[in-house]
Write a structure and sequence with these properties.
- Keywords: Membrane, Transmembrane, Transmembrane helix.
- With 134 residues, the chain is mainly alpha-helical.
- The chain has four helices and no strands.
- The longest helix has 27 residues.
- It is elongated.
């Protein structure tokens, strides 16, 4: 009897490449925005600008985790997507509930409305992709 090997699903193939590309794009956008805000006007909204930097770091690490595709990469991506989802929801709620808490927008403010709500959808897509390719 001949056994056919089932192809191993990896996070960096097929639609995963597009997901990684979007994470890289958001990593670049969030990093650029955070650096500019921190360098030019950090005193105006330190919490908001620090959160933008945290979001940028999460996007970078998530992209690396998805691209590595091994067991460790999957685990890193899972943690990043989970933290990112919690962050977007918590910051989204807080930014709507108390505008004084965030005098300037972050990547995750109002559930990522400034970025077309992609920051809210991205971790959901990442978690879905990780589940689908497990």
């Amino acid at each position: 009897m001949v056994e056919t090997a089932t192809p191993r699903r990896t996070t960096n193939r097929g639609p995963g490449r597009l997901l990684i590309a979007v994470y890289i794009l958001f990593a670049i956008a969030a990093t650029s925005r955070a650096l500019l805000q921190i360098v030019t006007k950090f005193g105006e909204a330190p919490v908001a600008y620090a959160l933008s930097a945290v979001a940028a770091l999460i996007y970078i690490v998530a992209a690396i985790g998805l691209a590595r595709a091994g067991h460790a990469g999957r685990r890193v991506a899972l943690v990043c997507c989970s933290v990112e989802l919690v962050g977007v929801v918590v910051v989204g709620i807080l930014s709507l509930a108390d505008k004084a808490l965030f005098p300037d927008e972050t990547v995750w403010s109002q559930f990522g409305s400034g970025y077309g709500y992609i920051p809210l959808l991205l971790p959901l897509l990442g978690l879905f992709w990780l589940h689908r390719t497990r």
